[in-house]
Amino acid sequence: MEFKISKNLILELEQHIVNKNDKELEALLNDMHHADIAEILDELDFDEATYIFKVLDSDKTAEILLELEDDLRENILSRLSPKEIAEELDELDTNDAADIIAELSQDLKAEVISELNDVEHAKDIVDLLRYDENSAGGLMGKELVKVNENWNVLTCVKEMRIQAENVSRVHSIYVVDDENRLKGRLSLKDLLTTSTKTQISDIYIRKYNFVNVDTEDVEVARIMQRYDLEAIPVVDEMGRLVGRITIDDIIDVIRDEADQDYQLAAGISKDVEADDSILEHTKARLPWLVLALLGGFISVKVLGLFEGAMLEHGELFFFTPLIAAMAGNVGVQSSAIIVQGLANNTLTGSLFSRLMKEVSLSLLNGFILAIILFIGSHFLLDVEIVIGVIVTTALVSVIIIASLIGTFVPLLLDKFGIDPALATGPFITTSNDICGILIYFSIARIILGF
Amino acid sequence: MEFKISKNLILELEQHIVNKNDKELEALLNDMHHADIAEILDELDFDEATYIFKVLDSDKTAEILLELEDDLRENILSRLSPKEIAEELDELDTNDAADIIAELSQDLKAEVISELNDVEHAKDIVDLLRYDENSAGGLMGKELVKVNENWNVLTCVKEMRIQAENVSRVHSIYVVDDENRLKGRLSLKDLLTTSTKTQISDIYIRKYNFVNVDTEDVEVARIMQRYDLEAIPVVDEMGRLVGRITIDDIIDVIRDEADQDYQLAAGISKDVEADDSILEHTKARLPWLVLALLGGFISVKVLGLFEGAMLEHGELFFFTPLIAAMAGNVGVQSSAIIVQGLANNTLTGSLFSRLMKEVSLSLLNGFILAIILFIGSHFLLDVEIVIGVIVTTALVSVIIIASLIGTFVPLLLDKFGIDPALATGPFITTSNDICGILIYFSIARIILGF
After folding, report:
1. What is the complex's ipTM, to 2 decimals?
2. Which of A224, A281, A355, A414 to mutate to test the interface with B (most CBs of B within 10 A)?
3. Could you give all domains of chain A from N- to C-terminal order, each with its CATH number?
4. How far apart are CA B230 and CA B228, in angstroms?
5. Residue B195 in contact with partner chain A when CB distance is under 8 A
């Protein structure tokens, strides 16, 4: 059932654009979902995409705008007049409109806002612009259905019908007092199953979840998931109902958070996508590579300390990448478990018991790996027994230390309010590389006495 | 607004358990959300948790059961009779009940099902048990509101009120024909804003999204996100409406998928959580470590090929961990971008243009890193100029090759229907380690001629 763009469709559209067959274009695209049209436009070049964009109706294009890749959206917006942009925004929900306005330059912002047709809508959008984008205020929309606790169900239903015209998904009906302070909610289901003569104050639910305008977005996501909510009301400092967050906006928060952890684990420090510019990618990737390079300098220095071993025990140096790699891998595994546990709030028990568990786990893994390494070093790699003993001992020690570092560092960062995901990836591999090499050669020095 | 468990609350509960103050326990917990109670039970030991579980009403405990950690749920279920388990399941939605039954042993399953009170409910649950848990059939619930296309709105509203009693969230009203084949939907909003005299066939929306019972769960998630759906109907092979999937179940799919990619990137091959047993962790972590160790064997062999350099150019060996680490880090970055692009469906353009982009990016990053390395090797590490030249040249080459491997491998895996996330983490770091070292020493051999 999923939509797939065919090469033929693209060719057909391009032909119609060349021939300026606006009617044909409309006929082809009008029945499609805006998400599908956005994907098609992303496949075309900017001029073609803009041409189609201008052919379609603004109720369709407004939604398309939201789904486009950033650079195409920017390009199309730059070719529209403030009045044309305002026409698009008039079609959108307040939070989506505010998101698009926030991307515009300061001058253009004011012009576009002054061109908005619906004054109430404009006021709501301006109101939303002042919230931080990572807060509940930045996520919420102004579209919601609310009723006064002093109404009866009849008035309520009448009012709701009017309000629902502007709300694409009703979810909950919020109950407020005369001062617009949130008092509770009416569920749609209650409404469907209750007689119309009942008083609102008799039937509304006084227990309800809400967040404040300045609650962090990831916190909102956590609350909505925990209590299985599809919408949550947002109140200001005085408890007045100022907006509502719906689950679709929260899905983006959840995905962004997971994506970001993943990118940090891979040594990418800024949210980039495959299609972003080379410069954007460099900004995101280079810092971690520089860090890894500086870590590499230290490992060169550390190896230099053991130069004396080279003449008689040169083989030792063949094993440094193996030891470093094992230390890095073990550290990343341990830290990933902790980072994910912190993100999903599934970590229980004390720090000590957690570290003890890692040690037991390392002993078990280390023991199995040590056997493989000892046998392998003897039969496959043909090294002297004493080198095999050194490498094997080092492996077990390195695995224990690396897993302890991998467990401890993200917990420590989290304690100090730093994103623990920073500790996975290059940071942990680099520091574990260095520790691993140091431990390995120290053991070799003790045993061989060079 | 988020719930936090206090030490005092736990102590108070434990005291009441010791004294068998059931009334006090109920009073303390009855007003709490089931998700909060589940978190409290997870903090207690199994006996205490079971005690509280048995004190509370089954409408509450059923929901709590769903939220518990796996091992506690298993433990509590093992202490309940088939009849008691059936009482819990009678309170749950069909898909949640089916999930719990699926965890039971074959014998217990049959017993519990025979004890279910509501025969319709039991039939629905049994029906759900036959679907694969990673398919739309495995995700869907039987609870939904549907109306016949031949009814008028009045009959429809009456019927809906009855049906809505069993459905915790209505979302959409589905329209079917006399054979129960899905024909379209009525939106709740339309219902709120349309006169009750209208005929269903005149107002229902004939365009609608749906999935088949055997559609994969990640595919369902993609469709629901793309088209911004909060519920989607599920049809069988004959187009008959058999269930409905809601967005809250999809959030779990999205999170699990992101978590899994993250774990694969960290070299963890099975879905484990921090609190799983050491054996589970070993199963998940050891395979990748063994792979990395075998990769390490190869790197030892590769280094052995260049043993001849040791006497005169021993310093070269100090740089192997640096080169290997840079190759690994670059490879992981490149592959993470591709894996995420594939997961989010944001990759556009040809393979060739993508590889070209990676080469340009590597040249830019490589050039900057090369300058740092060259200066660093001269002033910080005190190596001869010629070693500096070799290491620097190797670094740039290694970065280019590593990024190409990192880009190409996940795309290749994806082409063959293998999860591209497998390519991140240990697999890519290990192969890039080996390639990096080989390239480095080959360059050294060409320049120094050992």
Report:
1. 0.79
2. A281
3. 7-134 (1.25.60.10), 145-253 (3.10.580.10), 278-448 (1.10.357.20)
4. 7
5. no
